[in-house]
Amino acid sequence: MSVRTECWDIAHEWANRQDGSGIGAGGNMLYGGGCVYSYGDHFIIAKHVKNEAGERAVLFTERTYSQTTAKHIAIVRNASSHLNIIHVADPALTHEEVFADWKQRIITIAEKLAQAKRPQKYATLIADLYSEAQRYADFFGQAIPEQLAQAGNIRNSEQFADYLAKDREERAIEQAKQKKRSQKLQQAKLKAWRAFETNSFISADGWDYLRCNVNTCEVETTQQITFSLYEGKALFSFISDTIAKGGCSDCKETFLGQYPIIEVSKDQIRIGCHKVAIKEINRFADQQGWL
Which of 168, 195, 222 finishes a domain? Predict the structure, then answer.
């Protein structure tokens, strides 16, 4: 590693792709592995990159930190002014993260359009950001995400309102799909737990579930509480009788002598930290021949 007194030397060595690495005498600016840093690898100022066609460019940060880091950034910008510069939030980010950052910054600017006295100023900022995103995408051969492309074409408050409406609709559709995927995954994991293929099950829907261990004649819950089938049948009788009487809240009863029975209703029971649907209790009871 070479040691230089001036940050200018470090910046120019890095910009001219000197092999190896270098560090300023004060240790506050260094380069290596294609990157030039301010105060260490937690802050990349710029990074040499190459695409599949063999073309070169520099990803240059748009972040800042301290006055000294701002000075380092200015020095590197000057030293690399002859290179193909693409400005990004952080050269360390992945393609997906870089695109997400551009979209968020465009939305932040677009939010000012409705109240702006000079909306063209913000429309220009959006166009400039999107132009840089297109340069990045073209260089790396990446497709611009659809939502970023939609955001990048916003030029007035009406278009922003349309974008938000479409974004809400797309989010709702995606959330519904995600919920369906999560439910399907939970059902598969619950089936495996009930079949004793695993002893661990973390509920994603807030409910607790039951299974019967035929070897020990015990009831087991997904929170790993165990009690005998005899105790389970007695609890089922209490639940059935209580529901027939209209249910209870703060039932002033305990289960196994220590777990407070908090609620019994036609929909659910809550005992201690457990919440079990009546549908699940009836499923288990039917399985045991209690119904």
Answer: 195
Tokens of 211: 């299974």
**What confidence tens digit (pLDDT) does each residue in 155-211 have?**
999 999 999 999 899 989 999 999 999 999 999 999 999 999 999 998 889 999 999
pTM equals 0.66
Give, in order, the Cα–Cα distances in Å from 265 to each of 100, 235, 244, 250, 287: 46, 14, 9, 11, 21
Residue 71's contacts (CB-CB under 8 Å, 6 or more residues apart) are 7
Q: Do 238 and 188 contact (CB within 8 A), yes or no? A: no
Q: Is 43 strand, coil or helix?
A: coil
Helix (H, G, I), strand (E, B) or coil at 10: helix
Give me the DSSP letters along 176-241: HHHHHHHHHHHHHHHHHHHTTS-S----SSS---EEEETTTTEEEETT--EEEHHHHHHHHHHHHH
Residues of the domain holding 218: 206-288
Which of 62, 92, 122 is a domain's end point?
92
The predicted-structure confidence for 104-116, as pLDDT tens digits, reads as follows: 999 999 999 988 8
Q: Quick check: is 34 in a domain? A: yes
Pairwise CA distance, residues 285 & 291, whole Å: 6
Same domain for 69 and 35: yes
Are residues 10 and 24 part of one domain?
yes
**Residue 185 CB neighbour total at 10 angstroms:** 11
Q: How far is Cα 136 from Cα 85, in angstroms, rounded to an integer? A: 10
- Per the structure, the count of domains in the chain is 3
Euclidean distance between CA atoms 169 and 205, whole angstroms: 24
